[in-house]
Amino acid sequence: MSTFVLLLATGLGLGALYFLVASGLSLIYGLMGVLNFAHGAFLAAGAYAAWWAASGGLPGASGSGWGFVLATVFGVAVGAVVGAGVELLLIRPLYRRHIEQVLVTVGLGLVGVALLRGIWGADPLPFPRPAIASGVTTIGGAAIPNDRFVLLVAAIAVLLGLLALLRFTRIGLIIRAGVENRAMVEALGIDVRRTFTLVFAIGGAVAALGGVLGSVYLGSVSPGQGTSLLIFAFIVVVIGGLGSLTGSAVAAVVVGLVQQLANYYTASGVGDLSVVLLLALVLLVRPGGLTGRAAA
Asked: Is 138 left (phi over 0), alpha (psi -120 to 50) or beta?
């Protein structure tokens, strides 16, 4: 029983990590129709920025407690700046040119990994763990690492925060209206381009948060970390339904649990295969994903 509880907790924590990465993808695609293959670069940039800050690069950010919080905030800010910069310099001229968007973002993702390897090397670097994530909590006889709970709390907070932003704020109203009818919103004197840049900044910030907490979960940070997590994030987004935050949240939980349970009860590596089979099954039954239309 304790083993099953541990597997459930680990699967939920992994699903929360996948959602943190996938939420930015879902947000950017759902609102702007941009498949951002450079999302892993946002994640890695935020993770390395937090690692640099927590390793003594930023005064007051080293150590656990509030120092780690400051390092995380710094990493999230770097992710937001990178996301906004990518939209301003590369994506803005390419709206409605989807093939060019894919090529540019794929290339940017590859360049980001190469740049990080050139600066910090290809080997994983130990990531400092805050005190809150270093202990364990016993539930049902299972000693569950606290980093699982940190991931869950962060994922829930991000989901509720993004939904509230889009549904109950003026900025969210402008974003949704700009997607539906950009010309009309601009005729009202509102600069839609700024709101689109804001969407990319939010996506980059959430990805960076996923990178920081994912590094805590994995215990290290590496240049290819964003790419590996991005694969599962895309699977989560497709299963949940492109552009649906709630669908991505449900899919992330399912993917995390399936992966962990399959790896333990069958053989190592079968979990990844099970996730791919789950993706194929969902696409066959509901091509639009769990929350999409069957004819999507």
From this structure: beta
Residue 295 belongs to some domain of the structure: no
What pTM was estimated for this model as a whole?
0.90
Express each pLDDT in 109-138 by its tens digit.
999 999 999 999 889 999 888 877 778 888
In whole angstroms, give the CA distance from residue 177 to residue 254.
32
Decide which of 18 and 290 is more confident.
Answer: 18
Element (H, E) at 143: strand 142-145
Residue located via tokens 């997607």? 179
DSSP H helix total and E strand total for the chain: 12, 4
Q: Give the chain's domain count.
A: 1
Tokens describing residue 25: 């993808």
Tokens representing residue 78 in the block: 């770097």
CA angle 8, 124, 68 (to 5 degrees): 70
Domain limits for position 180: 2-285
